[in-house]
Design brief:
- The chain has nine helices and ten strands.
- By secondary structure, it is α/β, with parallel strands linked by helices.
- It has one domain: Rossmann fold (3-Layer(aba) Sandwich).
- The strands form two sheets. Strands 5-4-3-6-7-10-9 form a seven-stranded mixed beta sheet, with helices on both faces. It has a three-stranded antiparallel beta sheet with strand order 1-2-8.
- The radius of gyration is 18 Å and the shape is globular.
């Protein structure tokens, strides 16, 4: 394909439809005519979109270590449920400088990460972390099987979310846990917060992708508490509705690999 030629719009990762609306107002948002998933149509190809992250300066956000520690305190025990073998093995896709992996390593876990930003990957390696630099679709999944694989605010930025989950699930240990966190389209898309994300998925979109990847025991969780008054109403609404209303700005969902499915121990080419 000519470098200047724009690739055709992809099929919707949730329902497979190819009916996208025209761009909404001043944004790059297009809505799927089949299920309402939003696409941010801003790049001419996957490699052009990925270049936005490869060239960005790696800057750790204030409070990263504290947030990573809270995430680990929640995710670690959840992943360990039902385990009888040794230390948990943890893979973080889009690990940044590795704050979450450092928190897991302090508890004796074997850890590895994938990070597309060379500066962030280098920062993680300087801390002794095993970080593969590049796109998940190019570098593949480090050798497993992994007891826990996480996508913190990553999956809805990828060109092919279903394929990313299939690659990860292949290297998940039997009964291993996969955790995804991403922006909630029901909250963000209507107010046109369309920048810096490739896709916007509603909670049902995330759960559908995990189901298609062959995972089970799929559960929506209240988003982890943040130091913001905005999280308080969502938490209260969620509890008062007996978890039927999900008004969090981000979706937090977990799923397990069925115990009967083997976990691959070989890295992908």
């Amino acid at each position: 394909m000519d470098p200047g030629e724009k690739e055709p719009l992809p099929a919707c990762p949730v329902c497979g439809a190819s009916r996208w609306s025209p761009r909404r107002d001043w944004t790059g948002l297009r809505a799927c005519g089949g299920c309402g998933t939003y696409l941010n149509d801003r790049s001419r190809s996957r490699h052009e979109e990925e270049a936005r992250y490869q060239g960005a300066a790696a800057q750790a956000e204030e409070g990263d270590s504290d947030l990573a520690a809270r995430r680990w305190r929640w995710a670690g025990p959840l992943a360990a449920q039902g385990r009888k073998d040794g230390p948990l093995s943890v893979l973080d896709v889009g690990c940044g400088e590795g704050a979450f992996l450092l928190a897991a390593r302090q508890d004796g876990c074997r850890t590895a990460g994938i990070e597309i930003n060379p500066r962030a990957a280098a920062a993680g390696r300087r801390q002794g972390l095993d970080v593969a630099c590049g796109s998940l679709f190019d570098v593949g999944v480090p050798s497993g099987p992994w007891g826990l694989i996480t996508f913190w605010d990553v999956l809805d930025q990828l060109e092919q979310p279903p394929e990313a989950l299939r690659l990860a699930a292949r290297h998940l240990a039997p009964n291993g846990l996969l955790i995804v966190r991403g922006r909630n389209a029901r909250m963000h898309a209507p107010v046109k917060m369309a920048v810096l994300r490739l896709r916007r998925l509603a909670p049902a979109g995330f759960t559908s992708l995990l189901r298609v990847a062959g995972l089970s025991d799929i559960r929506l969780h209240p988003d982890l508490p943040r130091r913001s008054w905005l999280s308080v109403p969502a938490q209260l609404l969620h509890r008062a509705s007996l978890a039927r209303l999900y008004a969090f700005s981000s979706v937090l969902v977990s799923a397990r690999k069925p115990a009967g499915q083997p976990g691959s121990s070989q890295g992908l080419p």
